[in-house]
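Dear support,

I submitted the protein below through the web form. The confirmation email said the job was done, but the results page showed an empty box. After a refresh the structure appeared. I'm attaching both so you can tell me whether what I see now is the final result or a partial one.
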Amino acid sequence: MKPITLKLTNDQIFDLKKRYYAYKIRTDLPYTHFQIRGDDFTITAYTSGKVVFQGHSAVFHASLYGYVESEETQSTKKVSTQSNATPTRYPMAGSDEVGTGDYFGPITVCATYLTDADLNVLPVSKIVDSKQINDDTIRQLAPVIMETITYSLLVLENAKYNSVHKTMNMNVIKAKLHNKAFLNLSKKITMPTLSVIDQFMPKDAYFKALAQEPEVYKDLTFETKAENKYLAVACAAIIARFAFLEALDQLGTLYDFEFPKGAGAHVDIAGKVFIERYGQDALHKVAKTHFANTQKIINL
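What the results page shows now:
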């Protein structure tokens, strides 16, 4: 995508360097204060006060300093910010889910609410690359986020999931969970004008899936890979992943068994060991039994 250029104050540029202290920072480039490099972004702060955000997650990082991407065109534009000004996209809400691609374990969905004040407390430099974070770091980071922001978390355990999946597909189930998460969140705070859902189905199909629901939260922005663009979604992804890991740990303790993540061949092998120990009927309590893994496990 095209670079994003913002005009920042000296205080904001100082804050930028402080916020991204954990990344590689160069200070030897001509006409610059510094340049920050991450896995999928580069931020260059020039002595003129201009700051250029580049890379796959440029929108995400620029949004922390007031950049707003046009919802209609998703085209880039320059936005000037003033010292101590509230970024125009905060407060914001966002949601994401975890566990839909894992044979073992539940589906977890989280919706979060962030204000500009939260940016001063959250470890943003660690959150921004949430997809690259390992499980140990998730376990350390999520509690900090959960103590700082307002959120709604839902955990759909396997037995219940397998029951409802008999009459609805996974996307419909996810739609109902996201809707419930936003409704729960709306009871805790006054919802912001920007509420983003990490899109997993077309907007029309999403609301069609909720046609029979007694209450539907409708003021949503749908966007793919939203965790790379919106801090609220990134925080939701981390909390949901933490809840998934905790649930998997609890299952492991209950059955004295190590449940692997994913849905590959290693899962089939573990599943075979599990049913040899606890029987095939026990699968519905720990796994999403409509996955192809079930038949593979039985046939091993």
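Response: this is the final, complete result; the empty box was a page-load delay. Confidence is low (pLDDT under 50) at residues 71-88.
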